């Protein structure tokens, strides 16, 4: 999977994704590191600096992400809430399309956006989510994922995609089919449990997105990655 030829799918070129991950994660020598020594890997140090500059320096955060948040909120009718975890290289947020409350649990339909800090990549996922509160605490689980503009998620999905593309015109949508590819060594950095060595986890953050029923087209977004045909003189 580390060979670039494996990242050319018919007429679609995903090699830049592999190259980006190689820059920041020890996927070329995963057995040479453990969860402690990986902190000294040059790419990890650079990634931590990028996260710090984006999220911990308030001036940078306001300029880079405050403007985007305002732009997004003006273009959608649903409430938008940021969901970043400030030590992962990803800006993220969610809009709630529907929430049904019952006695002990809540069923939600949400659309999540993820924008990478490591390269010009983003993705969107619709989530059917169940949340339950009991005397033992609060629990939640993703019941189904919608990975393309499909059925009740279609309008919001496309609207969010349009807004992200307008604000970040050079960014490409990472298809679910590519996001679930695995590369050993990613979870050394993320230290997620269970371990998630996925492209999604590398570019964005560890999420429980690959253990649920999937709806829609897993290849949605491939058109962003078509080879550019050069005309012959």
Verbal overview:
There is one protein chain. With 233 residues, the chain is of the alpha+beta class. The chain has one domain. 30% of the residues lie in helices and 26% in strands. It has seven helices and nine strands; from the N terminus they run ββαααβββββαβαααβ. Strands 3, 4, 5, 6, 7, 8 and 9 form a seven-stranded mixed β-sheet that branches. A two-stranded antiparallel ribbon has the order 1-2. Strand 3 (80-82) and strand 4 form a beta hairpin. The radius of gyration is 18 Å and the shape is globular. The two termini are 36 Å apart. The mean pLDDT is 89.
Please give a quick description of this structure:
This protein is an alpha+beta fold and 233 residues long. It contains seven helices and nine strands; from the N terminus they run E-E-H-H-H-E-E-E-E-E-H-E-H-H-H-E.
Show the helix and strand layout:
Layout: E1 8-9, E2 12-13, H1 15-24, H2 42-56, H3 58-75, E3 80-82, E4 90-101, E5 105-116, E6 121-134, E7 137-146, H4 154-167, E8 172-173, H5 176-179, H6 186-190, H7 199-203, E9 213-215
Parallel strand pairs: 6-8, 7-9
Antiparallel strand pairs: 1-2, 3-4, 4-5, 5-6, 6-7
Count of beta strands = 9
Provide the structure class: alpha+beta
Q: State the major sheet.
A: 7 strands, mixed
- Total domains: 1
Percentage of residues assigned to helices = 25-40%
Helix segment tally = 7
- What's the order of the H and E elements? EEHHHEEEEEHEHHHE
- The whole-angstrom Rg is 18 Å
- Overall pLDDT score: 89
Gap between N and C termini: 36 Å
The dominant shape is globular
- Low-confidence residue ranges: none
Beta-strand fraction estimate? 25-35%
